[in-house]
Amino acid sequence: MVKMFCLLVIFFSFAHSTYLEEQKWPKGETFLTFLEKNSLPSSIYYTLDKEEQELAAEIVAGVKYHKLKGEDNQLEQVLIPIGEELQMHLYKNGDKFVMEIIPVIFQEENLSLSVDIQNSPYVDILKATNNYTLANEFVQSFRDGVNFRNLQKGDKLVLFYKQRVRLGKQYGSLKIDVSMIETAHKKNYIFFFKESYYDQSGKELERLLLGTPLTYTRISSEFTSKRWHPILQKYRAHLGIDYAAGIGTQVKSAGDGKITFVGIKGGYGNTIMVNHTSGYTTLYAHLNNFARNTISGKNVKKGELIGYVGNTGLSSGPHLHFGLYRNETAINPSSVIKIEKNGLSGKDMKDFQAYTQSLKQKVEIALKSTIEPKKEENFNLTHTLEKPYM
Ligand SMILES: [Zn+2]
Fold first, then answer.
1. What is the pLDDT of residues 29-59, one digit of tens each?
2. Which domains are assigned to the chain?
3. Separation of 319 CA from ligand 1 center, angstroms?
4. What pTM did the predictor assign?
5. In Å, how far are 18, 171, 204 from 124, measured between CA atoms?
6. What is the CA(173)–ligand 1 centre distance, in A?
7. Cα 331 to ligand 1 centre (Å)
8. How far does the centroid of ligand 1 lie from the alpha carbon of residue 339, in Å?
């Protein structure tokens, strides 16, 4: 496989004396190796508390981070995103480098798109907006909604979506409030409602249903993407659920999938990662040991034994740290682990109908008018090669 290691480096001239460099976090890089490479003291890592060291293990390969350099090419500051809400900020305090965790500043934009189908929804959305996140999200949301093969040239597609913008560019995950495809004079809708996609009758679309990966005694820490700790006076995040359980308790794959990582992952200790459908990945950390035959590349079934609860890495007691990612963004596992519902009813159904009624009206207006799509910058071939979705 060709690895696109030619870093996409963009230089912004800020002032005469300093400049900002954007780079991609290389595969296999850990926070420690990063410090080493940049001649920064490893004490930055070792003086972090447990929760911060866990977060350091959350840096995703391929994520864009920024370096601020001085006149003499000296590193002055580094900003590394962790999840979507927080970032590590490395900076000089006197003559010493220190790290703090700070929020990422972004805005939210409400956007819409209306196109006539020429090729496929994916290609047409991409052509109109240069927005891969949007094109992928659309395909994932409409997965079971309409058979794309039956679409005709000239069929209509309308989207209303919310996206985050940071430093003038599309940032992080994105939500499609409503997608509509009109084919054979029939309008097919998908709505995003209460953290899930629904069709117009209020039926939740089939999606990944995960099981709890172990029998546990209690949840010792819930998921949080950003919180301010008033005593420590620090921002914190916990990008998973901690399940307290005895050492050696069996850990099972939460869903069908393929093992993509088995090994030590920084503060997470012995870790397994499993890829599932629809862009979901699960992570199992602090394991005591791996089950026999748990190797990278192996297909696993939901409920299949993969490892055993332990206390490895930075862990204050035996527990399983269970993480869930969608398109590499950490999300709350409890939003996916739930008992299958029998569709919406009662007040939920009423809310759904009121909510979707107003969105349908917006779609009708969009169909009758011309919307200038918002084009994202930095459209390039490199990116196309890295995103094998079509
Ligand atoms: Zn944890």
1. 889 999 999 999 999 988 888 788 888 888 8
2. 10-103 (3.10.450.350), 107-204+342-386 (3.10.450.350), 218-335 (2.70.70.10)
3. 8
4. 0.74
5. 40, 21, 26
6. 22
7. 13
8. 23
